[in-house]
């Protein structure tokens, strides 16, 4: 469908709203575009500014404009608050005031959605179904009681029409991104279209509550051995694409230290626990809650952390986990040369750069931070400085690392709100050291050898067939070429066959070694 006219209208509405609320002037100050672009925007938006949305005058200009434009824009603003590499630190900080404090939609619409998705009357499934206790940009949550079991549950329901509205808005976002790249070449290094791609993927996943339920279930399995970190169980037969039902959990809000103290919770210990928990999830499982702000965390009287809202989860591969752990460990031990080598080994920094100069830059990051007062030692600040340096040395933005950094900033902020004197590095050190010992020592080497041999053994039965096909193909070629190919390939073929034959024995040996070292 030809959508340019509609996108032009949406772009005009965005421009008018930004002009009316003062957000346009704020953005221009932050990005300092060429004078001609500045002048064109002002000329274009001045006459249409009165037609823009007014927004909440109590909010700062930029969040005010974004909130006025609707749920998709609010979600985009929340995502951009996690991307200081794209919008800058000041704007990222301003966007953090965007909270999911939207007006709830009527209970009747929620009931209609539930009945449509689950195919049964609400009263048949729930003996109690209460008004919403939280309304967000995409969904809202209702307390309820299961009729069959009598258990109290939380029922999350998508906003009516949010998928359709999102599709319209994402089309406008792509149009805006491509327009920026065309008219303002300096923005291309920030990859606006790639940012919208990322946003599209994140929010599309959030609007399928089956995926959030799946993330919650996986996260619950991963943390099952930790009684002090609780993930509510999903009720699968009462969940679908637009409805998710999970057990109700009771606890004091993480953002209310006074209430926590009244419960007898040890706040300094809780502050350390939240940091260590995040690092364990990121390093050990490679799967972590990427939205661990106070609104998504509660605390039981015994100090156990109750996690909620699994719409945004982070996932990092084993190599990235190893790199991240070695970087943290390098800073903990102040081994700047090793940190530099890790960046080069992982391919984060181009091989043609000077490793010694990079190590010197890393020292300039680490030493001032470790020389500060405990209350000012910040892992998040260190990572932010680190990404600045790596960018200067040619490292391209890596989404998974930015999400990791953003979550670390949020977690560190939560810990500081509980105990301003928490020592971030003291809390992190045992987790990082344990991970290093388990994943880079003899036990880890034996495990890696075992995994490699298992892969080889899995393909061993196919090696004779591969060799036969190779010889047949060679016979069909010209005689001279065939002779050359057989001569060159013969040793390799027999080497492959020999390796396959040895695979079974090697598997046994590797398993034995892992068992001895484990």
TrEMBL record:
Keywords: ATP-binding, Cell inner membrane, Cell membrane, Kinase, Membrane, Nucleotide-binding, Transferase, Transmembrane, Transmembrane helix, Ubiquinone biosynthesis. GO terms for biological process: ubiquinone biosynthetic process. Belongs to the protein kinase superfamily. ADCK protein kinase family. PANTHER family: CHAPERONE-ACTIVITY OF BC1 COMPLEX CABC1 -RELATED (PTHR10566), PROTEIN ACTIVITY OF BC1 COMPLEX KINASE 7, CHLOROPLASTIC (PTHR10566:SF113). It comes from Rubrimonas cliftonensis. This is 2-octaprenylphenol hydroxylase. InterPro entries: ABC1_dom, Kinase-like_dom_sf, UbiB, UbiB_bact, UbiB_kinase. It holds the Pfam family ABC1. The chain crosses the membrane at residues 493-514. Pathway: Cofactor biosynthesis; ubiquinone biosynthesis [regulation]. Residues 98-343 form the ABC1 atypical kinase-like domain. One of its GO terms (molecular function) is ATP binding.
């Amino acid at each position: 469908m030809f959508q340019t006219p509609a996108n032009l209208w949406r772009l005009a509405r965005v421009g008018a709203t930004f002009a009316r609320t003062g957000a346009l002037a704020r953005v221009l100050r932050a990005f300092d575009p060429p004078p001609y672009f500045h002048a064109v925007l002002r000329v274009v938006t001045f006459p249409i500014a009165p037609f823009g949305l007014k927004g909440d005058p109590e909010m700062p200009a930029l969040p005010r404009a974004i909130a006025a434009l609707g749920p998709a824009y609010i979600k985009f603003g929340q995502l951009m608050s996690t991307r200081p590499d794209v919008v800058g630190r000041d704007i990222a900080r301003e966007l953090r005031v965007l909270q999911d404090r939207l007006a709830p939609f009527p209970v009747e619409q929620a009931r209609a959605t539930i009945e449509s998705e689950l195919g049964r009357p609400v009263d048949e499934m729930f003996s109690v179904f209460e008004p919403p206790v939280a309304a967000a940009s995409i969904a809202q949550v209702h307390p309820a009681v299961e009729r069959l079991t009598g258990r109290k549950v939380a029922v999350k329901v998508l906003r009516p029409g949010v998928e359709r509205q999102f599709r319209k808005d994402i089309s406008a976002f792509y149009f805006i991104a491509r327009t920026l790249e065309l008219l303002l070449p300096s923005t291309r290094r920030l990859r606006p279209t790639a940012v919208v791609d990322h946003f599209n993927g994140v929010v599309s996943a959030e609007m399928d509550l089956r995926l959030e339920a799946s993330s919650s279930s996986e996260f619950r399995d991963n943390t099952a051995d930790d009684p002090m970190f609780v993930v509510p169980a999903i009720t699968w037969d009462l969940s679908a694409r637009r409805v998710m039902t999970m057990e109700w959990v009771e606890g004091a809000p993480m953002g209310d230290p006074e209430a926590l103290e009244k419960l007898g919770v040890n706040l300094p210990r809780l502050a350390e626990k939240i940091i260590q928990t995040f690092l364990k999830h990121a390093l050990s499982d490679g799967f972590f809650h990427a939205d661990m702000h106070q609104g998504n965390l509660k605390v039981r009287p015994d100090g156990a952390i109750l996690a909620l809202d699994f719409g945004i989860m982070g996932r990092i591969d084993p190599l990235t986990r190893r790199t991240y752990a070695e970087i943290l460990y390098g800073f903990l031990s102040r081994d700047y040369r090793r940190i530099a080598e890790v960046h080069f080994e992982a391919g984060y920094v181009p091989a043609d750069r000077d490793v010694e100069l990079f190590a010197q830059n890393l020292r300039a990051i680490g030493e001032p931070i470790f020389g500060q007062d405990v209350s000012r030692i910040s892992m998040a600040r260190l990572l932010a400085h680190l990404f600045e340096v790596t960018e200067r040395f040619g490292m391209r933005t890596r989404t998974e690392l930015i999400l990791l950094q953003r979550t670390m900033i949020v977690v560190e902020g939560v810990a500081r709100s509980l105990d301003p004197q928490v020592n971030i590095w003291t809390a992190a050190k045992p987790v990082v050291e344990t991970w290093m010992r388990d994943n880079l020592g003899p036990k880890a080497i034996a495990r890696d050898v075992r995994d490699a041999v298992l892969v080889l053994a899995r393909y061993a039965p196919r090696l004779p067939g591969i060799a036969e096909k190779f010889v047949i193909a060679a016979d069909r070629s010209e005689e001279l070429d065939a002779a050359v190919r057989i001569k060159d390939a013969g040793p390799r073929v027999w080497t492959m066959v020999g390796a396959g034959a040895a695979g079974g024995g090697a598997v046994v040996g590797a398993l034995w070694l892992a068992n001895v070292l484990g």
